[in-house]
Amino acid sequence: MESGLLRKYASDAGGLRAARHGPHGHSASARTAHSMSASALRKKSDASLVRKVPFAPLRPLLANLQEVFLGTKLAVLFPAVPLAIAARYAHFGQVWVFALSLLGLIPLAERVSFLTEQIAIYTGPTVGGLLNATCGNATELIIALFALMQGKIEVVKCSLLGSVLSNLLLVLGTSLFCGGIVNLGVDQPYDRKQADVSTGLLILGVLCQSLPLMLRYAVGAGEHSIAADTTGLDLSRACSIVMLLAYVAYLFFQLKTHTQLFEPQEVDEDGEDQEEAVIGFGSGLFWLAFKTVLIAILSEFVVGTIEPTSQSWGLSVSFISIILLPIVGNAAEHAGAIIFALKNKLDITLGVALGSATQISMFVVPLSVIVAWIAGIQMDLDFKLVETGSLFVSVIVTSFTLQDGTSHYLKGILLLLCYIVIGACFFVTRQPSSHANGNGAGMAVPSGTWNAQVA
């Protein structure tokens, strides 16, 4: 086994053994639905190749590299990372840079999940849960921050909205449909308690995002008067603080007081799902930082080339941000959720889809508003009428779909059809350049440059 090879040669060998079991011989970390979903795409490395290396001091390093880069079924996509960097600096074309960067983000996102889980084995379930809560949607957060710093506020809003819609409708819908087809004739059960918590938080998020929109329309209709034009912005910032407080309470609820609600089902009856440390704690931190830097580089490429790609492909920036970015950016996690649905493990699937949607809606979105506030950028929670309406309906449909604690393929079909209709809406919608950061939306108007409103 490669873990044995690492224990023999790595300097932190004792840490590997200590991290594997707690004081009573049990696993030191509680696995989450996110980590178990990502683990569905992992594969065991062939340690025999490392043993054949004649120079013994190199074996730990090679074993480490093998685990970090080849320990996933998505390793075939890793060449897209250097190709994207080469395309960027060799001026191959911005469309190529965009496409290669998106492909490169897929294995990087999966590896960040793996490394976070490895570090959590050493730190324990509480710190590990916080790491997962922070890094679970690292790709979306980094893309949002880069877009924000470049003044592309609508790209931030659309990409985050698309991530929520993708998790609620596409991922969950595909999982329920595939699971229902494989288990045709029987309903798939799941625990409603976790779903109820997540949908409650999502409804709170929709409320906070709807209030600035409703205030703007109420003022425009003359129903209310405001003291200043910045009232909607101030309301958005206040709502963002409330959302972050709610997310902190949710983390305390999940990691401390009601951990049993979020414990995923066992993957294998013989306990094969128990994760073991295969790299050291220091190595995990180093590779996590390295992968995060790569994600940041590719995210900057994606944000910088999204408008030329939009013009080249004839698609609106909103469609690319809401539909394409979330699908590609979370492909690994989404595939894992579907795999567990096929295995009749819907609690894990729901934990991935609803957990990711909740994290983005209640953490990444308000955090982006707060960061923009600190940077002097006027980003609010007004996602415009069509976007907010799509989010509201998606949350309500998902909530009703999950209310009885059982699933079948028809529920998956309904969620997928909702996603197709919403996608079609944004496919035919164009953002007028004169309102790039405003609140209007036009039809069949080419997408222009998205400039920030800087305070």
Automatic annotation (TrEMBL):
It comes from the Eukaryota. Pfam families: Na_Ca_ex (PF01699). It is a multi-pass membrane protein. The chain crosses the membrane at residues 68-85, 92-109, 129-148, 160-185, 197-215, 235-253, 285-303, 315-342, 348-373, 409-429. GO terms for molecular function: calcium:proton antiporter activity. GO terms for cellular component: plant-type vacuole membrane. Residues 95-255, 285-422 form the Sodium/calcium exchanger membrane region domain. Its main location: membrane. Keywords: Antiport, Calcium, Calcium transport, Ion transport, Membrane, Transmembrane, Transmembrane helix, Transport, Vacuole. Vacuolar cation/proton exchanger (CAX). Translocates Ca(2+) and other metal ions into vacuoles using the proton gradient formed by H(+)-ATPase and H(+)-pyrophosphatase. Belongs to the Ca(2+):cation antiporter (CaCA) (TC 2.A.19) family. Cation/proton exchanger (CAX) subfamily. This is Vacuolar cation/proton exchanger. It comes from Urochloa decumbens.
